[in-house]
Task: inverse folding
């Protein structure tokens, strides 16, 4: 069956990031989504460990830190940071929470106003977008779509009368658009008493309950005889908040709806996990080794020596980190030339990365400048957030018009740019600069903004400088201090016992420095080994690697230079900070929302600080620090919950700053960490809708708004993306006394664009007179209008499923026929053993044959044999669109105390719901009695 997708766009508004809800008494979408994500991710990690013949040790307390360590098999003492995992979790939960902010009155997104069929359409659309993005390897697009669709799924259980009908299990038909929704109340059916009180017991009419009729509450205007949603003044059927009356049997409706919503969210996540495999699923969630190797390389004719070094470095880093916690989980290579940019290689296979790098061929060039900023932009839109990106070039940028776009992407992704520049000049410049070549000034600016380095070397000395890259290939790199200064000065920094591999990087010309440890021992910048560190100098870079030993305490470094320089102090530690500027939003579900671009200058601001890698902190302080290391403002810090803090600042400064976190651990040991990306507040605000969904061949116009505080006159605007979907835009707006104006950009999707393609459109606004700018991001997703959403079917052809009470050496066997009928075709079956710590390869065998079914369609015949000691097995058929059909069979074992016991192929067996699914009409797929009979039981039980 094909399903015509609804192409709906989110309302105009700032893109927000998830933050904790303001409601502390009720369980929220945040809690539902996070619990489901962690539990299904743990299932995936357990299954992968079993496949590898390893034991999976589930954490006693399930949280991002503990789960990441369990999944990667590292100890509590290992330096493994969960900060990037937490960022990606927040990205998913962001989109979930934003449905309440940006689509608060959309009935179809919340199952309000009896919009149950259209609500399921929203779910079908959302799931299709998730899977189309995963088909294209677009993990960010998949995360965002997943967050949005889980909100709608969860709201069904709170906003409908599903619980009142006696159901504690999820409704499987919500995820099966090929099945009918049963017993829906029509517009003329009375469903509730007309209760005007704050508390309305027994509000649902008895005949609705006795006939198992589905309905939902009306949010704004409730028709006569229909159910009210409920708010602070009038009762209704919503179960969004706790503290209400219990049912006669003592059940809390809010907790019951929460539990069912968790299970329903897990059903969807399990479906995606089975469709795309554990590795892809875990990568989407960020449960991988968080290191990313990302190179952006100039491939013009003069870069032969540099490419030889990149080839050597790539092989060495891959070989050195293989099998360690620091082994990269993703390898990205972006090539740029003139006039072309690309191709882009993004792979999880280190050998493919080696081959790709070794096959680079130089060509072209001619004039000196190259399209380096285009290559950097492509890397920033390909790499995950907070990546370290390394750029190799010997030429200045030709595409300088992309400067503001690249800056916007750096600020939004919080990625770090480090440049290996082999066009250093022999003469020292008199100007106050850290570089010899003035054409590298844009690179220096981008490095300073992102917390990276602009390193000038010769072609022959480049191999001596690439140790900086090797230092960064770790999952736990943290910044202790970073400074960009033009004055000779003394800086202090605090090292704590958690820090390892502490390294100082000083870039600049005519540098002299003296380093002093807490005991007063000093060492100058003379290259070589000393009492405190090993010092090396190459080009304009000093690399100072502190000797191993007790480094705890406050250190000092005095830097003397007549020119500009930068200082970075880094180390390895699980303790890190994830900062976000936020604002409070109101409504029925108030909470915090991230400001995704530059925060408003001159106004009060709120920061949310998440601290990873530590259970308890005391005396937490957050300061705003200038680029030169001066404290600009202190903040007022409040602890929200474990590891989460709010910091409030009065009147944000209009100069670039970073955030300095200080505090003490539970044992009293002090620490400090600093954010790496510089923050620049702005008097300009740009607003554009967050998401556009279009089909190949479609076009649309999208408005954007520019608002200013205290700025009038002309504002230059632009809209750019890496897929060239933007065909036109308003290039200038005149802001009068009202301080705002609206422009238009046009989007057009070429007819041959693959489904699942995405593009990040950067909308920028610049006031040249006021020297102010800001940006907003619009994400375009391309999805085919008609997609196959019918899952494959499966039937038992032959079985030998009887097992003795004592399993011993006995085995059971089943032969299954799987077919997708006239659909998109089958992938290999997914087999999951759900008994913990059972290595799959030691307990089972599978034989797969490709055959034809009785209608002549391609089919898969699977014969599966396993030990009778293994009874909890799930086998699923997956088609090429990612639709999942589960095969149902039972392994039977006699009981010593009663009648024979039946073990369903699931970890948990649950009763069927009162509303039964109905098989689709006019289906061309195979249907078999065992599939129809056990479908509901499988869908409600197998995925728990």
Result:
């Amino acid at each position: 069956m094909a399903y015509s997708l609804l192409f709906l766009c989110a309302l105009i508004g700032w893109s927000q990031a998830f933050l904790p809800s303001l409601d502390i008494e009720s369980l929220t979408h945040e809690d539902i989504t996070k619990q489901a994500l962690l539990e299904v991710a743990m299932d995936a990690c357990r299954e992968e460990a079993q496949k590898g013949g390893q034991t999976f040790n589930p954490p006693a307390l399930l949280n991002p830190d503990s789960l990441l360590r369990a999944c990667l098999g590292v100890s509590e003492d290992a330096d493994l940071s969960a900060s990037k995992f937490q960022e990606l979790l927040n990205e998913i939960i962001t989109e979930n929470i934003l449905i309440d902010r940006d689509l608060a009155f959309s009935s179809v997104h919340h199952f309000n106003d009896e919009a149950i069929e259209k609500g399921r359409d929203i779910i079908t659309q959302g799931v299709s977008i998730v899977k189309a993005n995963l088909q294209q390897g677009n993990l960010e697009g998949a995360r965002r779509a997943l967050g949005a669709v889980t909100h709608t799924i969860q709201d069904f259980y709170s906003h409908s009368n599903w619980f009142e009908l006696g159901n504690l299990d999820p409704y499987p038909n919500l995820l099966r658009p090929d099945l009918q929704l049963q017993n829906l109340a029509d517009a003329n059916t009375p469903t509730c008493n007309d209760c005007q009180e704050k508390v309305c017991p027994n509000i649902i009419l008895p005949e609705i309950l006795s006939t198992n009729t589905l309905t939902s509450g009306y949010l704004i205007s409730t028709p006569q005889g229909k159910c009210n949603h409920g708010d602070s003044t009038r009762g209704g059927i919503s179960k969004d908040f706790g503290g209400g009356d219990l049912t006669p049997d003592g059940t809390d409706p809010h907790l019951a709806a929460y539990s069912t919503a968790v299970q329903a969210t897990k059903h969807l996540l399990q479906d995606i996990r089975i469709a795309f495999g554990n590795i892809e699923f875990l990568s989407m969630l960020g449960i991988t080794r968080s290191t990313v190797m990302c190179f952006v390389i100039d491939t013009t004719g003069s870069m032969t020596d540099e490419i030889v070094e990149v080839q050597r470095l790539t092989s060495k880093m891959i070989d050195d980190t293989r099998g360690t916690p620091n082994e990269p989980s993703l390898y990205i290579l972006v090539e740029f030339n003139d006039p072309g940019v690309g191709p882009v290689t993004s792979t999880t296979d280190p050998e493919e990365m080696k081959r790709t790098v070794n096959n680079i061929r130089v060509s072209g060039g001619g004039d000196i400048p190259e399209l380096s900023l285009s290559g950097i932009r492509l890397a920033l839109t390909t790499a995950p957030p907070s990546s370290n990106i390394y750029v190799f070039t010997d030429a200045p940028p030709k595409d300088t018009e992309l400067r503001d776009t690249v800056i916007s992407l750096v600020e939004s992704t919080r990625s770090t740019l480090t440049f290996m520049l082999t066009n250093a000049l022999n003469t020292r410049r008199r100007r106050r600069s850290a570089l010899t070549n003035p054409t590298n000034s844009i690179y220096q600016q981008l490095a300073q903004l992102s917390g990276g380095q602009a390193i000038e070397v010769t072609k022959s000395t480049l191999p001596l400088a690439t140790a900086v890259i090797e230092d960064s290939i770790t999952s736990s790199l943290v910044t202790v201090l970073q400074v960009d200064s033009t004055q000779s000065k003394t800086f202090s920094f605090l090292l704590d016992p958690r820090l390892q591999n502490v390294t100082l990087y000083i870039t600049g010309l005519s540098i002299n420095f003296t380093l002093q440890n807490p005991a007063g021992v000093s060492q100058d910048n003379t290259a070589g080994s000393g009492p405190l560190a090993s010092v090396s100098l190459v080009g304009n870079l000093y690399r100072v690697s502190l000797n191993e030993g007790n480094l705890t305490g406050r250190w000092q470094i005095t830097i003397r230079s007549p020119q500009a320089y930068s200082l970075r102090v880094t180390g390895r530690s699980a303790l890190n900070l994830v900062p976000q500027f936020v604002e409070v939003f109101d409504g029925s579900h108030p909470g915090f929302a991230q400001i995704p671009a530059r925060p408003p200058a001159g106004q009060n601001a709120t920061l949310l600080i998440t601290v990873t890698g530590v259970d308890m902190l005391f005396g937490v302080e957050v300061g705003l620090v200038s680029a030169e290391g001066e404290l600009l403002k202190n903040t007022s810090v409040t602890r929200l919950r474990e590891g989460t803090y709010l910091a409030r600042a009065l009147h944000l400064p209009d100069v670039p700053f970073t955030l300095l976190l200080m505090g003490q651990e539970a044992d009293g040991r002090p620490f400090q960490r600093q954010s790496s990306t510089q923050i620049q507040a702005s008097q300009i605000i740009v607003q554009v809708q967050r998401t556009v969904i279009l089909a190949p061949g479609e076009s649309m116009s999208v408005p954007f708004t520019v608002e200013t505080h205290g700025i009038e006159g002309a504002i230059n605007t632009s809209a750019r993306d890496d897929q060239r979907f933007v065909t036109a835009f308003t290039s200038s707006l005149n802001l009068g006394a009202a301080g705002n104006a609206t422009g238009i950009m046009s989007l057009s999707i070429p007819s041959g664009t693959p489904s699942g393609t995405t593009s990040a459109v950067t909308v920028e606004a610049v006031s040249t007179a006021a020297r102010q700018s800001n940006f907003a991001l619009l994400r375009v997703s391309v999805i085919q209008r008609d997609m196959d959403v019918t899952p494959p079917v499966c039937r038992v052809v032959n079985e030998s499923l009887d097992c003795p009470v004592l399993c011993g050496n006995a085995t059971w066997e089943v032969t299954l026929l799987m077919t997708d009928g006239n659909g998109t075709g089958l992938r290999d079956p997914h087999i999951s053993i759900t008994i913990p710590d059972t290595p799959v390869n030691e307990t089972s065998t599978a034989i797969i044959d490709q055959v034809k079914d009785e209608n002549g369609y391609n089919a898969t015949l699977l014969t599966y044999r396993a030990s009778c000691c293994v009874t909890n097995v799930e086998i699923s058929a997956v088609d090429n669109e990612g639709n999942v059909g589960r095969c149902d069979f039972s392994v039977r074992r006699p009981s010593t105390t009663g009648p024979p016991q039946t073990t369903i192929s699931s970890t948990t067996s649950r009763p069927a719901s009162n509303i039964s699914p109905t098989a689709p009409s006019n289906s061309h797929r195979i249907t078999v009695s065992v599939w129809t009979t056990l479908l509901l039981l499988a869908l409600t039980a197998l995925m728990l």
About this structure: The longest helix spans residues 253-285.
